[in-house]
């Protein structure tokens, strides 16, 4: 990883996955989250031969075992709305982990 240049999406994927894994308590279950983005498919330019798998990665937020598998996290996933990352962390791990998540996101 040293002396590499990352695209913005790759950098955010690495950083957000690292944050989610470092805040999660050691003996607790991992976070699984499937959520839709507020951005519509019309917002993305797509190739004429794009498959459903290609299109899914742009509009869905998928987290497995604390790893961000899709490239898009929008404002709705970071806030206090229902089924956001903050809400899930509060429900699963408590207020301390949720506060740590907000602190980590504010430092980005």
Automatic annotation (TrEMBL):
The keyword DNA damage does not apply. Its EC number is 2.7.7.6. GO terms for molecular function: DNA-directed RNA polymerase activity. It is an enzyme of class 2 (transferase). The keyword Coiled coil does not apply. InterPro entries: RNA_pol_Rpb1_3_sf. GO terms for cellular component: DNA-directed RNA polymerase complex. Keywords: DNA-directed RNA polymerase, Nucleotidyltransferase, Transcription, Transferase. SUPFAM superfamilies: beta and beta-prime subunits of DNA dependent RNA-polymerase (SSF64484). This is DNA-directed RNA polymerase. It comes from Rotaria sordida. The lineage of its organism: Eukaryota, Metazoa, Spiralia, Gnathifera, Rotifera.
